[in-house]
Amino acid sequence: MTNTILEIKHLKKAFGQNLVLKDISMTVKKGEVISIIGSSGSGKSTFLRSINLLEIPSEGEILYHGKNVLTKGYDLTTYREKLGMVFQSFNLFDNLNVLENAIVAQTTVLKRSRTEAEQIAKENLNKVGMTEQYWTAKPSQLSGGQKQRVAIARALSVHPEVILFDEPTSALDPEMVGEVLKTMQDLAKSGLTMIIVTHEMEFARDVSDRVIFMDKGLIAEEGSPQQIFENPQKARTKEFLQRFLGHTP
Ligand SMILES: Nc1ncnc2c1ncn2[C@@H]1O[C@H](COP(=O)(O)OP(=O)(O)OP(=O)(O)O)[C@@H](O)[C@H]1O
Ligand SMILES: [Mg+2]
Asked: 102, 171, 198, 245: which is deepest, by most CB within 10 A?
């Protein structure tokens, strides 16, 4: 048995004439926490969205437990369930309360019983610190940090194998960032497999097993947090970190 969940090979994505992902390969093993960093427009979101097929890749392969999900006839139902996603803008259902937000996909998509779905939702809401007093609140009554923690609990409740995070803290007021990063750090410690696009360099350094630096639609450099943050090899990586950290790595 291999512990490889995803193997992405030579992925390309074009929007019209604009080749946004030029040739990306990446392997994701069970329990790995991978951070993706890079300048605006380098293709980080497009890469995440291509992994979970919110965008259909133009070329390449995505092997999920060894099978290419881009093959004609591949049943995508399980694949889509097993990849959770957390967005910058939360994407909660505004008309549903906190508890229902964490329940709805379980009963509709996974056909879990109401009782089971409720129990799983409550467990995960508690896990992210959104305890009982919040369950009947509507998203509009919550702070950004609370909304994002509900979105994380909702993603967890589907029991995904991998959760993709696309800049989960960049829409938050500065004082809310910490609570969401702490939640994600706890999840990382618990063994959840995570791919995180982030501008939080300190978090990426402390929490990731591997850091990927994307530049102009390619992986320009990747390695351990130590390698990337303390001893980057490529000029582009150094330049980027210099800009973000305000000092030479
Ligand atoms: N749906 C789309 N249609 C056309 N072009 C797109 C689409 N989505 C993204 N792009 C283009 O792809 C390029 C990469 O965008 P992407 O959002 O992946 O970058 P990013 O690295 O996530 O940037 P940021 O840090 O600002 O979020 C940009 O030039 C963008 O305009
Ligand atoms: Mg983006």
From this structure: 102
